[in-house]
Design brief:
single chain, 288 residues, mainly alpha, MetI-like fold, 0% strand, disordered C terminus
Length: 288
């Protein structure tokens, strides 16, 4: 007896197409259109107006100050981020969970509150260390050191949170084998550990740099917004926009957007160009 069976009719993939359309529409509305608008408004009056907007003395100083703060904050958070991630991944100690919570505080606290915290600590008038700072003539608030401190605070978690999971997932066998073959701690890190965490470290540095350059709230509180002295690029954009100089505002904003795009493109190029190579530890660490 033959039982006839009919193939089940395939349902039309309307649901899949609908989900794709919804996802793409959301990205276009939230990401693409605002990005395109920035560049469109920046070049509305032509290249000459755009160039004028980003080359005024105030704009040049704001760009220089922003880059200077990032050049200080990013390397410091990168170095200490690797160190803290290494300690958390390789050692157990009392208060470890508390330390993990402290690392996430900059992500939970409003940047404006961060600025107020530093004022209450380092202001010469109302700060906890104000009398000592005034006596030693050290100015932190409404000066470059305060802007660097707040940037360090808000960018602290990025490198740690990217590197820590990678270190926790690594097996210790390779590091132990390298040390057995005669490698010291520094050689073990650079030739065994670092190749395994380099992409996580790169992502962390990219996020840290983007946040350092684009930070507004905390820096605006402690900077004083002194034109030509403590005005970063984000603060300069706010000032010229409030003065109805929209071309200059969007021109400077396009620099931040362009930097973000170039960073992402560079990240993808590096990922594509990197070809994983495996070497035996006996070849990497050769005894003399």
């Amino acid at each position: 007896m033959r039982i006839s069976s009919k193939a089940k009719p395939q349902s039309l993939p309307w649901g899949r197409y609908l989900l794709i359309a919804l996802g793409l529409s959301f990205l276009v509305i939230v990401v693409v259109l605002p990005l395109v608008t920035i560049f469109y408004q920046a070049f509305t009056n032509g290249i000459e107006a755009y160039w004028t907007g980003i080359t005024t003395p105030e704009a040049r100083h704001a760009i220089f100050l922003t880059v200077a703060i990032a050049l200080v904050a990013v390397p410091m958070n990168t170095g200490f981020g690797i160190l803290i991630a290494w300690i958390l991944a390789r050692y157990s100690f009392p208060g470890k969970i508390l330390l993990l919570g402290i690392i996430d505080l900059p992500l939970a606290i409003s940047p404006t509150v961060v600025g107020l915290m530093f004022i209450l600590l380092y202001s010469q008038t109302v700060g906890l260390f104000g009398s000592w700072l005034e006596a030693t003539n050290i100015k932190i608030i409404f000066a470059l050191p305060g802007m660097i401190f707040t940037t360090l605070f808000v960018t602290l978690p990025f490198v740690i949170r990217e590197v820590l999971p990678t270190l926790q997932s690594m097996e210790l066998a390779q590091e132990e084998a390298a040390q057995t073959l005669g490698a010291n701690s520094w050689q073990t890190f650079w030739r065994v550990t670092f190749p395994s965490i380099r992409w996580a470290l790169l992502y962390g540095v990219i996020l840290c740099t983007s946040r350092a350059i684009g930070e507004f709230g905390a820096v605006s509180v402690v900077s004083g917004k002194l034109i030509g002295e403590t005005n970063t690029l984000t603060l300069h954009i706010e000032r010229v926009y409030s003065e109805y100089d929209t071309i200059a505002a969007f021109a400077c904003a396009s620099l931040l957007a362009l930097l973000a795009l170039l960073t992402l493109i560079g990240q993808e190029l590096l990922r594509t160009a990197d070809k994983p190579r495996s070497f035996a530890l006996s070849q990497v660490f050769k005894r003399d």
